[in-house]
Design a protein that fits this description.
By secondary structure, the chain is α/β, with parallel strands linked by helices. The protein has one domain: Glycerol-3-phosphate (1)-acyltransferase (3-Layer(aba) Sandwich). It has nine helices and seven strands. The longest helix is centred in the N-terminal third of the chain and has 34 residues. The radius of gyration is 18 Å and the shape is globular.
């Protein structure tokens, strides 16, 4: 009972911390976006987000609420050249763990997130993250960043993995279309967890079982083959994800039953 109450207290405090810091960095980011030269704004925004995310992860770890295995992400931080980092998307905070280790990534996200202060929207805009307002506009902006040798973070599922999907949602064609048009590799990132905490539809008042266990691993870069269609490329990438996520692992996704 004491353990349960302590977990609820820590969980509540961390939610409050997240809300307060998100609104704060969103406000700071919005103000800096208005006054900083465009040359320096992205550097400043990414620094703010990385430090905020690193502190949040640190607090989760020292409170015993999180066991995170993300050493392989450090290899991405050392990679040079244009690429698209493409993780499966199990929870709303996947981007937190990745950007905490690889801050130079330019995230492609829903336009509504960039307007949401509770998700640090102001700081995300300052960091130069790209909104998905339309596929055509997103592709245009993303290709220009890749031509400038930037690195993008893009979730190929398009949204968080649905509750009734075993491994991941069917992949959208946007990531493979972009990779083929820009002639850059896709680096798949595989996220596994012992929980469905913060999956799509998870209410904030529902406390998960702690500690949360999350493993993040990095796959080999994938390039479009000569003459390969966008659809075939997407199917090949999807198979890579399914083969990896379905392989034996202590944190392999468990099929959700009707009773859950």
């Amino acid at each position: 009972m004491i353990k349960y109450c302590c977990e609820w207290l820590l969980y509540s405090l961390l939610l409050v911390y997240w809300a307060v810091t998100s609104v704060s960095i969103s406000l700071i980011g919005t103000l800096l976006y208005l006054v900083l030269p465009r040359k320096y704004a992205p550097v400043c925004g990414r620094f703010i987000l990385q430090k905020d995310f690193q502190l949040f992860v640190f607090l989760l770890k020292i409170t015993g609420l999180l066991i995170l295995e993300d050493e392989e992400l450090k290899t991405l931080a050392n990679k040079q050249g244009a690429m698209i980092v493409a993780p499966n998307h199990i929870a709303i905070w996947d981007v937190v763990f990745i950007v905490a280790q690889v801050p130079e990534l330019i995230c492609i996200m829903k336009e509504s997130i960039l307007r949401n202060p509770l998700l640090g929207g102001g700081a995300s805009r300052l960091a130069g993250y790209l909104p998905v307002s339309s596929i055509t506009q997103m592709l245009k902006l993303a290709k220009s960043r890749l031509k400038s040798n930037k690195q993008l973070l893009m979730f190929p599922e398009g949204t968080r993995t649905k509750t009734n999907e075993q491994w991941l949602n069917p992949l959208k064609g946007g990531v493979t279309l972009l990779a083929r048009q820009a002639a850059v590799p896709i680096v798949p990132v595989f996220i596994r967890s012992n929980t469905r905490f913060f999956e799509k539809g998870w209410p904030l008042y529902r406390k998960p079982e702690f500690p949360l266990k999350i493993n993040i691993s990095v796959g080999e870069p994938v390039l479009a083959a000569e003459g390969e269609s966008v659809q075939a490329f997407a199917q090949r990438l999807e198979k890579i994800f399914i083969d990896e996520l379905s392989s034996p692992h202590p944190l392999r996704r468990v099929q959700k039953t009707n009773d859950e």
